[in-house]
Amino acid sequence: MRRRRSRRRRMGARTIARLTGSETCDDHVIIQSSALFPERMVQHVTALPIGGAEQPHHSLFKDTGVSDSGTTTPTSNGDDGSRSRSNSDDATSSNPRNDGMERNVSTPNDALHLERRVGLVSGVALIVGTMIGSGIFVSPSTLLVKTKSPGLFLVIWAACGILSTLGALCYAELGTLIPKSGGEYIYFKEAFDSPRHRFWGPVMAFLYAWVSVILLRTSSMAIIALAFAEYSIAPLMDTLNFCWPDDYRYTLTRLAAALCICLITFINCFSVKLATKVQNVFTAAKLVAIAIIIAGGLYMIGIGNTQYLSQGFEGSTTSFGDIATAFYSGLWAYDGWNNLNYVTEELKNPFVNLPRSIMIGIPLTTVCYVLVNVAYLAVLSPTEMMQSEAVAVTFGTRALGALAWLMPLAVCISCFGSANGTLFVGGRLCYVASREGHLVDVLSYVHIRRLTPSPALLFNSAVALMMIIPGDIASLIDFFSFTAWIFYGAAMLALIVMRFTKKDAPRPYKVPIIIPVIVLIISVYLVIGPIVDNPKIEYLYATLFILAGFFLYIPFVYYKKVLPGMSYITTFMQLLLEVAPSTAMAED
Prior knowledge:
This protein is mainly alpha-helical. It is built from 22 helices and 7 strands. The chain has helices at residues 2-20, 39-44, 86-94, 120-131, 135-138, 141-147, 150-177, 184-191, 200-240, 246-270, 272-302, 320-334, 350-379, 382-387, 391-399, 406-435, 454-467, 474-501, 514-533, 537-547, 549-558, 566-577, and strands spanning 23-25, 28-30, 48-49, 65-66, 72-73, 446-447, 579-580. The chain has a 3-stranded antiparallel sheet with strand order 1-2-3. Strands 4-5 form a two-stranded antiparallel sheet. A two-stranded antiparallel ribbon has the order 6-7. Residues 11-110 have low confidence and may be disordered.
């Protein structure tokens, strides 16, 4: 039996050698430079196990070494993470064929990692572009249903912006204190991983990655893609003046959403620079659309249409739970204010550009949201807003006349840009969690030339594609939105803890301690308020989903059990996608 296995391994090695033009050596293949595997692959995909050579496993899926601190040490390329970036930078700059999209030249001691290619403008565009999605165009009236008056409606919109700004300022300190990608994941791991209690930091980080990667990030992308499909298919059907059956409409909508996700995935896998350019262009386009809405509303106010705004706070709700759920609706529209913290390692001069991007992006979004809702109330009554399926489209029909067609187009542009930013950020969270040893090993690999985390991006897209199949996932996600504020509150607690445990660490940016305390208190209110006021079984389901992460963490991460065959899958995916293990970005 042992001879038969050895013979199979040698046959498999010879097969791959014939396909790739490489040399064989017992159980391994030494990849040579060829058309399929260029020069860069030589350094990072060498001595790959083919048939039975066991590698040390340290978690559910990992095929690389993991230190006691939880950081990965790739073994496929023998890189210890200490190599310099200077050689690769010199090679890239001296290459006349380099177009900025990929690397064609590398040097023998080049460490593979993501590069700093996100500047201040792209950082602002990433924040604004992901925050402004379909909500402000389609369903701002959801908040109006809970508040029951125009005055309280506008106050809650502004208050949500202020709360988001306060939270983002705390994240600016976290991001400059711990200049690593991954957002809350890496902050939990750093803050709660003490020498005495090494269990709680990694487990909190894992639970956050579990909920975000499997549910929150991917479901958000699916909802945005479905909104894009709805507002691209509906005008087409109206133009053709054909009453399509519901089954056809359902199928076309899902196909359009899938096409949107696939296109965005290709863009992000192809080039970081291209993805940021797309984000910049679509963010600028949606700001132009918002400016048109605001200008139309101000014109209507100028000619005396203030009867709905003058109702003020008449009939405002006094319910504890209604105000909390109104904040949920508003904060869902503001979601994305922390997105830049997921790409800190790719941000140019993060100690300056991270706080600046936050201070520019979030106040800009807040002003846009408040003025857009004022414009809506200058044209539509509260009842009309609550009954409208797409408030911006109804507004365009009333106020813009012949230019009303701009509103469905604006929704499509806004959704596409927001989905692009959501995938860009979600892929980085998946990438960092894998690099730290908590997810599939191959998800921490990057493309050898384009330097994009393509396996993580493809995984996020695959989960999002599965989520567009159900008829209505938005109603389920509403009950999971409160879980986001559990983790936001935990991030504020992490900041407070590190004020004591890392009191001597350099802080390029520092907020008054009262700000994270206020955000923490509000987070507790937003989590407990709706449950106390109107308890529902869905909240229990959401809690159980979070706790289900323990059943994966304890055996597969803490006790380092591993599924059989993962080394084969990792090798196959590495060869198929032309990816290789990466290291963390060296601090400048």
